[in-house]
Each structure stands twice: as structure tokens, then as C-alpha cells.
Amino acid sequence: MDDRIRPEPQSSKPRDSGQGAGPTLTTTDPATGQAGRSYQGHGREEALEIARRAQAAWGPWRRTAFDERARLMRAAGAVLRRRKDEFAALMTAEMGKTLTEGLAEIEKCAGNCDYFAEHAEGFLARRPVDVGGPPNTSKAFVTYNPIGVVLAVMPWNFPFWQVFRFAAPTLMAGNAAVLKHASNVPGCALAIEAVFREAGFPEDLFRTVLIAGKETRPLIEDPAIAAITLTGSVEAGRQVAAAAGGVLKKTVLELGGSDAYLVLGDVDVDKAAGVAATARMVNGGQSCIAGKRFIVVPEVREAFERALTAKMEAYGLGDPRKAETKLGPMQSVKARDDIHEQVKKSLAAGARLLTGGTVPDRPGAWYPATVLTDVKPGMPAHDDEVFGPVAAIIAASGEADAIEIANASQFGLGSGVLTADLARGERIAAEELAAGMSFVNAPVRSDSRLPFGGVKHSGYGRECGEFGIHEFVNIKSVLVQG
């Protein structure tokens, strides 16, 4: 087992790889602000060597039978379930996720392993094409072949799910993978590598590199890397897309979101507020697909403001290690301060505070559930992605105006419609909202069975389901003439 699976003490001497040791990465407990474990990073040449080893492992793996791939992927799911308490605690320590949400995240990862173990072979089966001509003289089909090593640049907010969302279909398709995770979750990154190794996958088929962000471009440009997937900010997406475009490599980008939910006049207000609060507060509000803008028609606006405020106030701050806690700390003090600045600027521009909005006087990255109303264009709460527990209520004159407000955003990841008229909701969701996902009367969520991704500045390409596994294969046409 690679010695990087074990954390090194902060005071330990950096390992000399002979190729330039990388930075020491020290974690911080967001609940206390105290330093946690430290990990020795990789130098640039060492990271490139890891990518080349993954490419070498890909050679025989691409010819491995689907039933063997599936056996190993199910074994990975079993490892996750067996070590779920350990991994959930690791997420809590590194990025502040509540233990309850962490356990659910690990189970979701295990289910994703099972799903692609079961369905990958069918998704990638050869598909015959009728090209005409005399019978039995020719045949044509489409085949889906693996392309090589996929580099994944992943964020901290769902440190296991984001990785397994890409890794399960990527490996089941016959590819190899290299993970460059966020710098504040190095323990999670190494634990994921250990899961695949413990499950019995070839040793170098899935590898983690602990590198600084500036070292990502040389990795993208190296011939060992065939394609890149990124989940992160719009700016990170631009940088990765530019680097990959320079060497003509495919990318899938899942970027920011400012998901809009339309609250129409026929709703049960209490139920609608419950859906809205759940959508806003997933992962403490730190999710690209969290509901962020709630666009409300006049008939129910005041009632919805009261109901949403009550629902949000039920998310009291607490120790993320206790099962009853619904809202733990944010991932860092800087992230908390950035959110608070967005709230203050919105209030200064005329928004009205219904609850929250005050930084607690305690160590750690704490911020309360917050509701703003009278939110208008020009305010950060309206125009930007607010990556924390802050809900923005926006007034609309009616259905058409609500749709226009929802679509007048640089983002287009998720969206929602809250209405008692299911046909009306389906029409708006399917035909009117400019987003990669639109849910009616339910919070937007990722699901192994549904394509996941966005439009506009929320990125391009899809993860999950049949569409996701087809992103990183060579879709090849074959014609055999008799």
C-alpha cells in the first residue's frame, strides 16, 4: 500500500522523491478552526509519473471483461459500506459536513458503484445500424471503446460523491483515472484511492495526486491524460477548458449554479416552503444544485416569506458530529466571510433581512440559516452564486415574469417549479426553464439514473446514467462489407 494513504505529522520532514517533493497539505477543522492532519504532497514530475503509470495500467484493463469489472466495482461498494463511519468522520473533520449527511453520501457512492456494475455493459453494448443494401452482404454498428486516462479535478463539498460519480462509470467503461482533489480534503482523496485498491482493482488504475492548483495544467497537457472532467467554479472551468483545448482534449465541466424555483399561486404554501428549505440547505447550502433563488408570485408572497423563514430557522447551528445536527459549519472561515459579504452588499442595496445574517461570536466557520427578501438585479444574492445557507426571495408579477427572471441568469444548472397543477409544472419544467435539470415539487438532486449537468456558465457535458458513461468513450462507427 502507498505510504501516502497514511497521514504524516505536520512536523515531519518532506519526503525526497528525487523529483521534487510537493507541498505539505494541512487540514483545518471548520467547526473549531484548529489544524488537523498533514499530508505530504506530490511534486510535478512525481504527479506526471503517476499519470503515466495509470496509462500503463489502462492497457490490460481496457480488455478486461465486463463481469470482472463489475465484480470489482461491487467490491468497492462493499468497502465503502464497511468503512462508512470512518469516511463520514473524515469528511466532517476536513470540510465540516454533518455526520448524518456524510453517512448518506457514502451510501450514495456505494449505490452508484452497484448501479454501474449492473448497467455499464448494457449501456456500452454494440448498437446495430441499418445502412441498407442486399441482405447478408454488409453490417454496420456503433461500438463504445475506452479512451485512456481521465483526469478528474474535483471540489471539496461532496468529497466522496463527486469522485465516485465520475469514477464508477469511467472505470466500468474500461478507462483509468487520476484524481486531483481540492486541497482541503487530502485525506478523503487518499481514502478513495485506498477504496479501489482494497476492492482489488489494479494498483495504478485509480490514483490520487496531491498537487497545487498551478500543477494541474502540466498534467492536463501530458500525453498520458486523454480527457478531463471538472466540477468547480466558473473560473476554474475556464482555465481547465483553455488548457485542454490547447491540446485538443475533451472536457466535461460541471460548474456553478444559482438554481431558481418558481413558487406559483396555487401552491400549498407550507409544503412549498418545506421543499424550498430542503433545496436550499442541502450540505449546509454548499451545493451547486442547492435552491438559491425563490421567485414568488404576488398571491402567496407574504405567506411564503413567513413559511420559509420558519422552515429555515429550524436549521439550528450545532456540532456536526452529533446525529441531530441539521446545520454545521461552512467549509472555511474565508468561505463564511465571503458569504457574509454577499449578504451585507445585498442588504446595502435594498434587500430585507428576514432571519439570520449575523456571524456568530465563536471559533470556526459558522453562519446561520439566512433569508433575504426584496432581492433585485444588481445584488449579489440575485446575480451571483451564494454558496452557503442563504435563501433569496424574488418577487414576480406572474408566471411569465417568474420564468423570465429565472432564465435571466448566467447559470443554468438546476431549477424547480412549485405548483399544485402537475401538468402546468411539467410544461414549465420541460419547455420553459433554461437549465440542465428541472424538478417539479421536489428539490433538485443528483441520481445515478439521471443525466446530470448544466447549460450556459454552469458547464457542459453530462454525468450519471447512460449519457454520462458515453462522455468518455470513443463512439466508433464500424462497417463490414461482405
Descriptive key words:
alpha/beta; Aldehyde Dehydrogenase, Chain A, domain 2; 482 residues; 6-stranded mixed sheet; 39% helix; Aldehyde Dehydrogenase, Chain A, domain 1; 15 helices; disordered N terminus; 7-stranded mixed sheet; 20 strands
Under CATH, the homologous superfamily of the largest domain reads: Aldehyde Dehydrogenase, Chain A, domain 1
State which percent range the strand residues make up.
Answer: 15-25%
Rough outline: globular
Quick one: biggest sheet?
7 strands, mixed
CATH topology description of the largest domain:
Aldehyde Dehydrogenase, Chain A, domain 1
Q: Name the structural class.
A: alpha/beta
Mean pLDDT: 95
Task: Provide a quick synopsis of the model.
By secondary structure, this protein is α/β, with parallel strands linked by helices.
What does this entry look like structurally?
This protein has 482 residues and is of the alpha/beta class. It has two domains: 3-255 and 460-481, 3-Layer(aba) Sandwich (Aldehyde Dehydrogenase, Chain A, domain 1), CATH 3.40.605; 259-447, Aldehyde Dehydrogenase, Chain A, domain 2. 39% of the residues lie in helices and 20% in strands. It is built from 15 helices and 20 strands. The protein has helices at residues 44-61, 66-82, 84-95, 99-123, 161-172, 186-199, 216-221, 234-246, 269-281, 301-313, 333-348, 380-383, 399-407, 422-431, 465-469; strands at residues 24-28, 35-40, 127-129, 138-146, 149-153, 176-180, 206-208, 225-231, 250-254, 259-263, 291-296, 352-355, 370-373, 390-395, 411-412, 414-418, 437-440, 455-456, 459-460, 473-481. The strands form five sheets. Strands 12-13-14-11-10-16-17 form a seven-stranded mixed beta sheet, with helices on both faces. Strands 7-6-5-8-9-19 form a six-stranded mixed beta sheet, with helices on both faces. Strand 3 (127-129) and strand 4 form a beta hairpin. The termini are far apart. Residues 1-19 have low confidence and may be disordered.
